[in-house]
């Protein structure tokens, strides 16, 4: 439909796509002291997820965020009370700017969340025992124009060589945003 309207659009596939249910920018797994998985988090990692990108100017966000925008026609969570996702600027996702509207934190987590394992001793006490910073957002791809070849667009979404720093900056910004709005951060890192 967007192409019919003259808006450049392409399909994006994200492998190891995070579904951050609680919007804390990480995928949390909890185990008990014997190593048994506890089912207390609704976070998950999908083998892949597909969405659309559209190219347009962002007068609402400023010219820095012009370009490819994520639009998900199959949103997994409600946003502002309805099932919708986007348009989230891929530039904002790459820069870790998760304080923007249009589901930027959700898309950031889909391509860049840390997978964290916790030992849960009690409802009030837990300990972080492992963090995988490289599992999420592999081979983010689209189809090449005129051929069936794959084009790797991972670099449009994140900086692979400084992923840990990018995540820490985004998490810090998001935590401050939540505190400013007097919201409760579900899981502190």
UniProtKB/TrEMBL annotation:
SMART domains tied to this protein: TGc (SM00460)
Coiled-coil annotated residue ranges, if any: none
GO molecular function annotation: protein-glutamine gamma-glutamyltransferase activity
Keyword terms of this UniProt record: Transferase
GO cellular component: cytoplasm
Residues annotated as domain Transglutaminase-like: 1-75
Domain of life: Eukaryota
Protein name: TGM3L glutamyltransferase
Lineage of origin: Eukaryota, Metazoa, Chordata, Craniata, Vertebrata
Gene: Tgm6_2
């Amino acid at each position: 439909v967007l192409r019919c309207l003259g808006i450049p659009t392409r399909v994006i596939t994200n492998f190891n796509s995070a579904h951050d249910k609680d919007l804390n920018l990480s995928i949390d797994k909890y185990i008990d002291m014997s190593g048994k998985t506890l089912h207390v988090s609704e976070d998950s990692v999908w083998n892949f997820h597909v969405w659309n990108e559209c190219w347009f100017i962002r007068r609402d966000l400023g010219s820095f965020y012009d370009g490819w925008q994520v639009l998900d026609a199959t949103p997994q969570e409600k946003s502002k009370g309805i099932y919708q996702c986007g348009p989230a600027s891929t530039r904002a996702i790459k820069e870790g700017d998760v304080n923007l509207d249009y589901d930027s934190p959700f898309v950031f987590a889909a391509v860049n969340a840390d997978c964290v394992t916790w030992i849960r001793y009690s409802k009030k006490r837990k300990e972080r025992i492992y963090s995988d910073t490289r599992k999420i957002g592999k081979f983010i791809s689209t189809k090449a124009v005129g051929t069936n070849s794959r084009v790797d667009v991972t670099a449009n979404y994140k900086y692979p060589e400084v992923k840990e720093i990018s995540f820490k900056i985004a998490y810090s910004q998001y935590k401050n945003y939540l505190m400013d709005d007097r919201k409760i951060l579900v899981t502190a890192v």
